[in-house]
Specification:
40% helix, 11 helices, alpha+beta, elongated, Arc Repressor Mutant, subunit A
């Protein structure tokens, strides 16, 4: 988005200052028409001008977000894109790789936003960013909280749910190797008891086995009572896989400790083996 000027005409000032006085961060087309007392066509001209100057950005048809004046012309970045994308569906949360980036669990920057919602809808574009909609089963739609993004409140999966979601759907997190890295990076900042409660609530033996095996793989230190609870959750059921269903040569293979067939090669998991343990040792030195 190119910002040309932040100067305002009298009509544009009435819109922006009116929003500031009322503490409003978004406004609808009809409100602008009423505020200015002009025709819809004249209001549209003001809206186009405010968008061109970098004061408003469209969140959805007929609804606009204010780019606060104190943020200056460089304010429109990743955070504001999330604020815009948050208006696409309700209820929703941002998850998977998007949440992993928010918590700095990954260093891989992705130009795709993962919006998780129970609303059936098509993928969208917000400015130059693709918003891909994820529709989970009902029992997996939880574990998110409001966070502040430059004055806008958006819903983001919490740390524990972010890690679990990435392990559940590695394809939405950058692959199996990146899911392992997310867990390794996050393991010092998550509540293991909360994670176990989440896994029990999601009611998936396969997911629990993946979580347990990856935790061991990266060298995470799990409280023993949590480990025992996870093992109990993982018992029984059919075969469980991590990675592709049909293996290719060189995969790690069956892991009896978690009754999990790991159809991923060591190369695909990168340097994630023991990485959590190495981070702890490095911090102690």
């Amino acid at each position: 988005m190119t910002f040309i000027t932040r100067s305002l005409s009298p009509q544009e000032s009435r819109v922006v200052l009116g929003m500031a006085e009322h503490g409003s961060k978004e406004i609808e087309r009809g409100e602008i028409i009423d505020t200015l007392g002009v025709s819809p066509q004249a209001a549209d001209h003001v809206i186009r001008s405010l968008r061109r100057k970098g004061w408003l950005e469209r969140a959805s048809w007929g609804r606009y977000l204010l780019i606060p004046p104190e943020m200056g012309p460089d304010a429109f970045g990743e955070s504001n894109i999330l604020a815009l994308a948050s208006r696409i569906a309700d209820p929703y949360y941002f998850g998977y790789a998007t949440a992993a980036m928010y918590y700095s669990f990954t260093t891989q920057h992705r130009h795709v936003i993962r919006l998780v919602t129970t609303v059936r809808m098509r993928n969208r574009r917000v400015l130059d960013t693709e918003v891909r909609v994820v529709n989970p089963v009902a029992r997996k739609f939880f574990g998110f909280d409001p966070v502040d993004m430059l004055g806008y409140t958006i819903m983001m999966s919490d740390r524990e749910k972010t890690v679990i979601d990435c392990i559940d759907r590695p394809d939405l997190a950058g692959g199996e190797g990146e899911a392992a890295t997310v867990l390794a990076t996050a393991c010092r900042n998550i509540d293991w008891y909360k994670a176990a409660i989440y896994l029990e609530r999601m009611s998936s033996r396969t997911l629990t086995r993946r979580f347990g095996w990856l935790a061991d793989h990266v060298g995470a230190t799990i409280p023993e009572d949590v480990r025992m609870h996870l093992r109990n959750l993982a018992k029984g059921g059919s075969k469980a896989f991590f990675g592709r269903r049909i293996p290719k040569p060189g995969v790690i293979g069956y892991q009896d400790s978690w009754q999990l067939t790991v159809n991923v090669t060591s190369h695909e998991l990168g340097d994630s083996a023991g990485i959590a343990r190495r981070h702890v040792l490095g911090r102690e030195y």
